[in-house]
Design goal:
The chain is an alpha+beta fold. Helices cover about 25% and strands about 20% of the residues. It has a four-stranded antiparallel β-sheet with strand order 7-8-12-11, with no helix packed on it.
């Protein structure tokens, strides 16, 4: 959420306005701009000690999705927006533990919330890379996020506080052995949108990096705009009249119809604007006998029709039932399928197909 995008990449579409303000690191309201987090200016020692940025960094970089999220919320609602930036780059969920007796990122966030003297309408969250370093942290991700969301709703006195998170993209420098941890965290993030009321997960599987791990400024803009639609839906449009939650698979099945092109696995999606599309050959899906690695090359073609993905493969149905389905496996996969407004399909997997077929 802190962001490493280059500021000059935002200038062609940047329009600062006093109707979008940020509660700066030194606890003062200012006109917001895309570099929301200036933790080196904070009076809190905890943040300053953990803010390890190169000299001159803030002159060129620091663009995250928060400003563009607020800008799109203002456009959709016509209401001025206030942002309380609370992120710290590279943080782990244990630093956001609401049950800790020590000063941490959660207690600092609550201090800033109280200092504003008002209520919070929603939480926009992008974190999780720190939970991919060990299998234990990846497995505990959902439990820790449940604890965090429940505490936020308790401490803001809002039991239905909307929470929109961003699914992890990729870390090119991560070792291949950790791909399974990234898959697990992404899958848990995706499923949280289905398991916890008032939560939605925005995906960025068609992302682009500005370095080995951080999103390019243009993609930060995309994430912010798309997350605002999810937040608008949760806050103001639960019937989905002019907004939708993020796309999710609704049905996985083997079609009765087959043709000369081989066997087919179908995935029908919900919450789409228009039909599924891709700028080039649709790609990103994999099948594997292992939930942790890709151990077979079975997918030779992907077709899109309306709200359904048709995966063409050479396997027999009895083989398929023993396999796992992935979309955007690991950290080097290329995936390019979106709905008609550019919202990408979420990363998913390992999905045990025996539960569906």
């Amino acid at each position: 959420m802190e962001g490493y995008g280059f500021y000059h990449h935002t200038l062609p579409y940047l329009h600062l306005t006093p109707e979008i303000r940020m509660f700066s690191a030194n606890d003062v309201w200012n006109i917001a701009e895309p570099r929301l987090h200036r933790n080196e200016l904070s009076e809190r020692e905890y943040l300053r000690e953990r803010c390890h940025l190169p000299v001159g960094y803030w002159h060129t970089q620091g663009v995250g999705p928060g400003y563009f999220f607020a800008e799109e919320m203002r456009r959709r609602t016509g209401v001025p927006q206030g942002i309380i930036p609370c992120a710290l780059g590279g943080s782990h969920l244990y630093q956001w533990n609401p049950d800790s007796k020590e000063i941490n990122l959660y207690t600092i966030m609550l201090e800033r919330f109280c200092a504003c003297g008002s209520h919070v309408r929603g939480v926009f969250w992008h974190q999780g890379c720190g939970e991919t370093t060990t299998p234990e942290d990846a497995e505990k991700f959902t439990e820790r996020m449940h604890t965090l969301i429940n505490a936020l709703r308790r401490d803001t006195d809002n039991p239905v506080l909307p929470f929109v998170q961003v699914q992890l993209f990729a870390h090119i420098g991560s070792v291949p052995e950790n791909d399974k941890n990234w898959n697990l965290v992404r899958e848990n993030q995706r499923r949280m949108a289905q398991e916890i009321p008032g939560v939605d997960t925005v995906s960025i599987t068609n992302g682009a990096l500005t370095d080995g791990i951080h999103l390019h400024a243009d993609k930060q803009h995309q994430v912010g705009v798309q997350a605002a639609e999810s937040m608008f839906h949760l806050c103001f449009d639960p019937a989905g009249i002019i907004s939708k939650p993020f796309p999710q698979p609704a049905r996985i099945y083997i079609p009765k119809y087959t043709d000369e092109w081989g066997n087919i696995l179908a995935i029908q999606y919900q919450n789409l604007h228009g039909a599924l599309t891709s700028l080039d050959r649709p790609t990103g899906f994999d099948l594997s006998y292992s939930p942790e690695t890709l151990d077979v090359r079975a997918v030779f073609r992907v077709d899109l029709q309306d709200d359904t993905v048709y995966i063409r493969h050479w396997l027999q149905s009895e083989q398929l039932q023993k396999m796992y389905l992935f979309y955007f496996f690991g950290n080097t996969t290329y995936a390019n399928i979106t709905d008609s407004t550019g919202r990408p399909l979420p990363a998913m997997g390992p999905i045990p197909l025996e539960k569906y077929l």
